Amino acid sequence: MKNDRKNIILQSLANLLEERNMSKVTTALLAEKSKITEAALYRHFPSKRAIYAELFSFCDEAIFAKCGELKKSKITSKEKTKNAFLFFMIFIEKNKGFARLVSREALSSDEQNVSDNVNQFFERFELSLKQMLSEDSENLITQPGISAQLIVTCIEGNVSRYIRSKFKDSPSNYIENVWELLSLSIFKS
Predict the structure, then answer these.
(1) What is the pLDDT of residue 149?
(2) Number of compact structural domains in the chain
(3) Does residue 28 fall inside a structural domain?
(4) CA-to-CA separations, 163 to 89, 105, 140, 160, in angstroms, rounded
(5) CA distance linking residue 145 with residue 133, whole number of Å
(6) Which residue segment(s) compose the domain that 59 sits in?
(7) Quick one: how far is CA 116 from the chain centroid?
């Protein structure tokens, strides 16, 4: 029962982040959306910050589980990198609340630890891409680190673009074309 309530709270937060134009979600609003009292909310999570952190942690684990899977796969470095890029963008499309978290739009100064986690997340994601690209560095136009940085910068820009469109301009409509342009900038062939 306790985990069910926790999941309801996390899902409610994700939904609020997705549907609200304002960036801040109060515990009162979250409790109302979860159909529980604020006191019950705090029985499951010690703070609002902990709720954000756990939601972010769920998304972080999903992205890095996919990266780990790709690193072990027998496909080319180029395909691994492409799949990581596409997976990230489709994950964002399907988890709009996560988009607001990784853009830091949904975070206030009270959630500084989550903001720090977002920074570390992008550093780790960039490192994963760099490792994938290093497997075939002779086929790169430049160094793996610079190529990984370009991909992450593109991802952050596209996440912002998706939010700015109020989630109407889905990444799946254009992301293959974006990858083709990135690919021309990263790979020799």
Answers:
(1) 98
(2) 1
(3) no
(4) 12, 9, 31, 5
(5) 8
(6) 52-186
(7) 14
* Residue 164 resides in a domain: yes
Task: Judge whether 52 and 42 are in contact, CB under 8 Å.
Answer: no
CATH number, residue 123:
1.10.357.10
Residue 20, pLDDT > 70, answer no
Q: Out of 3-7, 8-12, 42-46, which region has the weakest mean confidence (pLDDT)?
A: 3-7
Locate tokens 């942690």: which residue?
57
Residue 2 inside a domain? The answer is no
In the predicted structure, residue 15 carries a pLDDT above the cut 90: no
For 43-53, the pLDDT digits (tens) are: 899 988 888 88
Q: Say how many CA atoms lie within 13 Å of 14 toward its Cβ.
A: 19
Cα distances (Å, whole numbers) of residue 52 to 82, 112, 151, 170: 29, 10, 26, 24
What the block records as the tokens of 56 is 């972010």
pTM for the model stands at: 0.88
- Say which residue, 168 or 5, is predicted with more confidence: 168
